[in-house]
Amino acid sequence: MMFVALVFLIGTVGAGSTSEECPRILDAAGISKMFAPMVAHSIHSLTLEDIRYFFKEDATEENGVPTVNIDLMSDTRILPNAPLAGYDEDFSTQSMKTFDLVMRNMNRTWWGITNFNTLDKLTHAFHMAEVWDSAAEQYRLVKRLLDPESDICGCVTNVAENDILNYLNLMAFKIKYPGITSGNKTLTDHYLESRERRSADFDLYDIESRYHMRYALTLSGEGLQADFDGIDFDLSDIELLKDIAEKLVDDEGVVTVHADSAEHWEVWRKMVKHGMEESGYYDLAVFMFCMLN
Hints:
The chain is mainly α. It has helices spanning 2-9, 22-28, 35-43, 48-54, 94-104, 118-145, 151-156, 164-176, 185-196, 237-247, 262-273, 279-292, and strands at residues 67-68, 78-79, 212-213, 254-255. Residues 199-205 and 215-223 have low confidence and may be disordered.
């Protein structure tokens, strides 16, 4: 299937595609049905430094790759471009730069992902690097075959229509409000009350410690495809919390253990080893090529 998809990429230049035509175009190009949630999961924490290391060395700050805002105090959920993270360039390896970035921010409650301890955050960072490394191999193949002016690229880069922005917003809610899609109405009411009494210098919601986001989503099957009908992510968190909690219940997206013991690490180890279908790396490679070229 991958060979067929790559062959199809050659010479697929069109005069422009409509959103109605895109499902057919992407299916013919080998893009999976889980394209939007897979890509959103894969890019939610990308930095410009990561893009330059894994995908395109000369990528600019106006790179067009949207990400979830790691400053969770901000009312801006999604950034339009993957930002510079401020890696310490005195380190020579990408892994040490990543480790250092997490450790420098380990005491910032509203940075990155809520309710994650330091080992959780490090696991998340290294897991994402593995995703990008796997996609980078296919990126190099796609780069040789796909024209950035093709209809395929026109479809994958239309993030407002192909649900990538919707899934990024959903991830932002899951990160900021752990358990929001679990169906726990009491938890939702608590978040609403906390937001309504929020002050400029608030520290942390009184979140049940057993709720935190399951970042290593098992993106397989149709079950994780959300129905965003009636959800307007231009609205504020307070205006949307009830809709998110009631309309997007998925019984997924949370874990109940931290990476704080060898026993619990086995739970996390399984998640990060089987976090994404193989097709997701191809989806991400095509998306990144089209966005960056």
